[in-house]
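Dear colleagues,

I hope this message finds you well. In preparation for our joint manuscript, I am sending the Alpha/beta fold hydrolase (Amycolatopsis samaneae) sequence together with its predicted structure, so that both groups work from identical material. I would be grateful if you could confirm receipt.
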Amino acid sequence: MPRLPIPRTRGARLTALGAVVVVLAAAAVVWSTRSPAPPLARTQDAVLDLPAAPGSADKVAIDTTTYFPERTPAPAVLLAHGFGGTKNSVADQARELAGQGFVVMTWSARGFGRSTGKIGLNDPDGEVADARGLIDHLVSSREVVTDANGDPKVAVTGGSYGGALALLLAGTDKRVDAIAPVITYNDLAQGLLPNAAATTAPTAGTPAAGAFTADGVFKKSWAGNLFSAGSGQAGSGAGPAMEAPEPGQQTRDTGQQTGGTGGGAAPPQPGPRAAPPAPADLCGRFTAPVCAAYTELATTGKASSRTTDLLRRVSPASVTNRITVPTLLVQGENDTLFGLDQSDATARQITAAGGKVTTVWYTGGHDGGSPGPKLRGRIAEFLRYSLTGEGSPPANGFSYDVQGTLRANGTPSVRTVAAPAYPGLTTAPAERRLFPLTGPAQPVVRPAGASPSAVSGIPGLNGLVSGNSRLSAVLGIDPPGQYAQFGTPPMDSQVVVAGSPTVRLRVSADPAHPEPEAVLFAKLYDVGQDGTRVLPANAVAPLRVRGLPADGSPVEVTVTLPGIVRPVEAGHSLRLVVGTTDQAYAVPATPSAFRIAPAEDTALAVPVVPGTSVGAGVPVWQLAGIGVTLAIGLVVVVFAAIRRRRAHDVDPDLAKTPMVIDGLRKRYSGGFVAVDGLSFRVEPGQVLGLLGPNGAGKTTTLRMLMGLITPTEGSIRVFGHRVRPGAPVLSRIGSFVEGSGFLPHLSGKANLELYWASTGRPAEKAHFAEALEIAGLGDAVHRRVKTYSQGMRQRLAIAQAMLGLPELMVLDEPTNGLDPPQIHQMREVLRRYAATGRTVVVSSHLLAEVEQTCTHVVVMHRGRLVASGEVGELAAAGGEATFRVDTPEAAAEALRATGGVTDVAVEGDLVHANLDGVPRAEAVALLVRAGVAVEQAGPRRRLEDAFLQLVTEES
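The corresponding structure tokens are as follows:
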């Protein structure tokens, strides 16, 4: 997992501190408005011996607690816990339901808490059979209402693992009268191995219908978390956020009936415990078939037919065609484990069987938290009406929450939108709005080992960052070169996405490295007008595209993106990103390359569900706390606006000047001053050499120029804009400061295309042809980079810096590692670029090359400016001269005999001398009087000598 970046500048730290203050203030409001604790209820603890399997004489001990209302007999509710939890995990909810008039039975499922047996993932012959035994127990109770046939009035509810149990029990036991599954799955094979790609367009008219294509991509992070929750000693571990017990709220299993204590005040008594797994038992508390299935998935990333059959057998999808009882499906909008597509499939299947389904989407889920008091009350009302006929039937067949600011109950919902029915079940199909999707075909690469991997979020913690653009950026990483992106035009007005968008894509293999299948990951970002992007619910759609032709011909598929609820504001756009890796999934480790493009005339089909807003307002007594939060938020906004204004500090008089450095100083902690009072300017068309010995401050200056560090004093302006970290004007600078990191198996041109695509700017603004022409790579640009010489790699790196033809290009040691012919070629590249009217700044230690390449030079020593000006003027400042003569030796003798002239040297027909104040014209006359014919006389252009003299004088 990547490290969270620590803000390094004072402004960034203050902004982060302000955000923390707002979060803490909001948390205080939420804490002050928490629901009161549920009332105490009379409880009865019992350990029931149930058959281990049909026809087996062996028994399993199931630890139960039953909660009784004030008045009995009453209708009963079986309340199942989530995976990794126990009966204690749902104790508060059980008391709440008992307080509303239900007899509530809770229990620890096989392999959890004090119950014995092995975990079979809701096996029909295991956990489901246990639940039927619990109903048998209720039948014998005089405190449960029964019908004329002696069957108990009973409903089943639970979250996740418990929600699936509710569905499986309703499909196998006709005594169940109603169910309310929460954030659960329809098909465990699709939940853990989703595949969002289909060769044919989806036919379901519901808003969140998933592709549910076979041979999916293994959701390794979530599956590993769940397997770990069931692998430790009995009673340990907690499941997802919804299923874990609150601290301090666990009750003790007593094996005895207690009074009105809520099951938590009686002294502990000995009770059955599942034996901890032996050290050598790699299956933990799982049955052998489940352990073998997980081992296969975790080691191969794929499911055999045996594993698929097992997952199907323990999934509600195996029995939904037999469920006809009233069903309330509650699914989370922030859930990367079991998304909205799982609830959608269940709703369609039960409706087809003749059942009546009410669907609720809320802002929680495995990533976002459990239902709040209002939604729990709605579940209780549904169960009461279904079991007794009291109250009112559900007013709407479908409702969903539109996420916004914090509410009194802590759920991030501003309003609830209600529709008469879930679209596509018994009414017309869901409306879908089409948005053009643009972008050229783009190459993508899967690196060896699939590392680095894209990061879309952290399973179970995504709710902490959902909807927050800054935190989302921290946990949202798309490595350059690994993804293609396509965008829609900005929205004319707000569009509330409610369901699963779809799009047609073309995927092809790289003919040079043909792969028969591609594993890809599609994400849909909400992009603001300022370029910030948010991945709604951190949702990712994995897809496996098979049958890719070796010749690179494309395969066209329909991709169903994750179901989300997201208000996309006017001016925002949607951006589809299709990558080759994701850290939460099992990705093939072999390196591969693919090409991705939208299908011809394709559009992004976005589901929308019109309805009526029915969300309640905030009570008056809470407004004071919320007002404090808003006031603090306003302070942060004002502070950010001031910083933004400072970030756009522009001097219009310098709008055409590439760079002006004024009084620049950088002092590090400890007192070391790297740059002190540096001032100079660079004009258009110049090639400026930045010279100085090691420690002169050149690198620090370049880092401040690129916005990587902040000056202590002074300023840098680029085209009049003051440079700060993240300043927009930095996009007008091209740079080659560190290693290029080219992918060796791709061509030079493909590497440049991947780099430009990672910037997010339009391809037509890259100016590939111009950059390549200036770099002078010729046909070599189509060869793989691994065949390049060092000089060709350097020229490709310069071409990369030239992409977009930046007005200012900054190069650090561009001739490193080059031989003399390659250095000469690099010199020509830089000259050709400057000839276009643009400006180049070169930092180099090769003084002779700077002399031949640069038009101007700045000499630094110990952080200070030593000299600056044209190269020729600076080189001539030392008083040395060169004479081209017919008789060099005679000229040398004449000069040596002249007082004040020193360092006379002969080089072919040239004679060099340090005149040291003797006028050059007088020296020429002296040579003529000595009988020497002088063909040419001028300053000796040796920058090295001038440089050494300047540095020595400064020392």
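For the figure legend, we might mention the following. Residues 510 and 662 are 51 Å apart (CA to CA). The two ends are 48 Å apart (CA to CA).

With kind regards,
E.M.
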